[in-house]
TrEMBL record:
One of its GO terms (molecular function) is protein-lysine N-methyltransferase activity. The keyword Methyltransferase applies. It is found in: Cytoplasm. Pfam families: Methyltransf_31 (PF13847). GO terms for cellular component: cytoplasm. HAMAP family: Methyltr_EFM4. S-adenosyl-L-methionine-dependent protein-lysine N-methyltransferase that methylates elongation factor 1-alpha. It comes from Geodia barretti (Barrett's horny sponge). The lineage of its organism: Eukaryota, Metazoa, Porifera, Demospongiae, Heteroscleromorpha. This is Protein-lysine N-methyltransferase GBAR_LOCUS17969. InterPro entries: Efm4/METTL10, Methyltranfer_dom, SAM-dependent_MTases_sf. It comes from the Eukaryota.
Length: 223
């Protein structure tokens, strides 16, 4: 979605904690009843693209990786299957973290993932205070914050400060968005992070125009 410079996205229930608590409570119920581990946001193919990029560009399997808004933990579980060892997932929804823990318990590769109930906007009050990560991932959380009906612009600023505080100097931040373009994301984070790469996504053609519905951008923290 293209927006005018400096504009905010229209608010939505997708930006509220109440929506995500209800969503993950339902997914937790479904997991108990039929073993369905829940939705993978932005599709499984998008998740594979992110994991493939990390496998090619992150040399150490002991790299400390944080997934913000981890949901059911699917992204971290795929990284665990590929041998990454220092994995942490946070989400502000207790039901999401409970789902992630229970799904991980069924996966032989995922015993090393730490899942924590943490609101990234209040990270100073959490167990992650003063923790630095080499890689931080976000697949949709910044989008959700941008849709919050109550103070989205201020919350986006707090989010950016939290990411910078959690990221080690020279560390990389990999953000995936369907609401902000590459140029908009670069501008939002430019005080603290510099763009390093774009992870290619399939293009679509409509009305004679070609474009992407999802942007995955790699940024690096200023040293």
């Amino acid at each position: 979605m293209d927006t005018e410079e400096g504009s905010e996205l229209p608010s939505s229930k997708l930006g509220t904690k109440e929506h995500w608590d209800a969503t993950y409570a339902e997914e937790l119920k479904n997991f108990h009843e039929n073993g369905d581990s829940g939705e993978i946001w932005f599709s499984l193919s998008c998740q594979h693209r992110l994991v493939d990029w990390l496998k090619k560009n992150v040399s150490s399997k002991e790299t400390k990786i944080l997934d913000i808004g981890c949901g059911n933990g699917a992204l971290l579980m795929e990284l665990a299957e590929d041998g990454f060892e220092e994995l942490t997932g946070i989400d502000y929804s207790p039901a999401a973290i409970e789902l992630a823990k229970q799904v991980a318990d069924t996966d032989l590769h995922s015993h090393n993932i730490q899942f924590l109930v943490v609101d990234v906007l209040h990270v100073d009050d959490s167990l992650l205070h003063q923790t630095n990560f080499d890689v931080i991932l976000d697949k949709g959380t910044y989008d959700a914050i941008s849709l919050d009906p109550l103070g989205a612009e201020e919350k986006r600023s707090r989010y950016i400060r939290s990411v910078s505080a959690l990221l080690a100097n020279g560390g990389i931040f990999l953000i995936t968005s369907c609401n902000w373009t590459r140029e908009e994301l670069t501008k939002h984070f430019d005080q603290m992070l510099s763009p390093e790469a774009v992870i290619p996504a399939p293009t679509l053609q409509f009305g004679g125009k070609t474009g992407q519905t999802v942007t995955s951008l790699v940024l690096q923290k200023h040293s």
